[in-house]
Specification:
A hairpin with a 4-residue loop joins β7 and β8. This protein has one helix and 27 strands. It has about 280 residues and is mainly beta. Helices cover about 0% and strands about 50% of the residues.
């Protein structure tokens, strides 16, 4: 099936973390290396949304519609309140600072799940070069209702994007450790059963090529839309590749939006793109 791809704007150095704002019919996305954030809407086009973002990367909305962001600069998770004030929610475990939280999702119970690879501390390109204070790169679960933090799983080398299955019984996590460990790393999406605030034993869902998986999203029909080096791969719930959206820039992430959540908004290098995925979302 031919999917129409539309370039919406190209304001970024490295575009990432798109999130759909249903009440505004708009997308907010990060320019990680530009240390800023942009907003795009059909009516108003693109505008600078936050001039200084603490090198924000991944974004999500909580159950009250507030923006949750992964900040490389402050090495933590922040929340933008309704009045625009930005609150830093969590930035350490047992007194040790995170590496550089990368991507985030919010479960229906309000818990915030995020990944913590080192990409914001290995140089000054998208954060501040620093030594790691923790012994690895993990997936965390933070509960803002009681300010508790859990290491959800140790079974990842370089976790990046993550997304829940439609019923929230499974968490999918991208492991792109092939980038750091060419002989022993992974280029795969892994899937884990959710067990409270932790994860059970994980397994490989798909191997992603060319390149490696970064950000991805899952629709209500359990189709997985995953970034790769030259586009977005579309997998069914069993891990079969059923289509691909070629993109002329290196893809970092994607999210579903539009009135019927049948539009895929894609961040790729400098740009924000849009593709209609109606037939997949509707299950036709």
């Amino acid at each position: 099936m031919k999917i129409h791809l539309e370039k919406l704007c190209s304001p970024a150095i490295w575009a990432e973390g798109p999130v759909w704002l249903p009440n505004e019919n708009a997308v907010i996305f990060s320019d990680v290396k530009g240390n800023r954030m942009f907003r795009w809407s059909e009516d108003q086009g693109v505008s600078l949304w936050r001039e200084y973002s603490h090198y924000a990367n991944g974004n999500a909305l909580d159950n009250e519609g507030r923006l949750i962001s992964c900040e490389h600069g402050r090495r933590g998770i922040s929340r933008t309140e309704k009045n625009g004030r930005v609150t830093l929610l969590v930035d350490s475990i047992d007194g040790k600072r995170f590496n550089s939280p990368n991507d985030v999702v919010v479960r229906s119970d309000g818990t915030i799940w995020f990944t913590d690879p080192p990409y914001g501390i290995i140089s000054d390109d998208e954060g501040y070069k620093s030594e790691s204070q923790v012994i690895g790169c993990y997936v965390y679960c933070y509960d803002p209702s009681d300010d508790t933090l859990s290491i959800a799983t140790l079974d990842v080398q370089r976790p990046n994007g993550l997304a829940f299955s439609p019923d929230e019984k499974w968490l999918y996590v991208a492991d792109m450790s092939i980038l750091d460990f060419p002989s022993h790393g992974r280029r795969e999406l892994r899937v884990y059963p959710v067990q409270g605030k932790t994860l059970g034993f994980g397994k490989r869902f798909v191997t992603v090529s060319p390149g490696f998986p970064d950000g991805f999203c899952i629709d209500k029909s359990h189709h997985v839309y995953c970034s790769c080096a030259d586009g977005v791969l579309i997998f069914d719930r069993d891990g079969r590749e059923i289509d691909k959206i070629p993109v002329p820039e290196c893809v970092s992430n994607c999210t579903l939006g539009g009135i019927n959540r049948d539009q895929l908004y894609i961040t790729a290098t400098t740009s924000l793109y849009r593709a209609s995925v109606t037939e997949f979302v509707s299950g036709r």
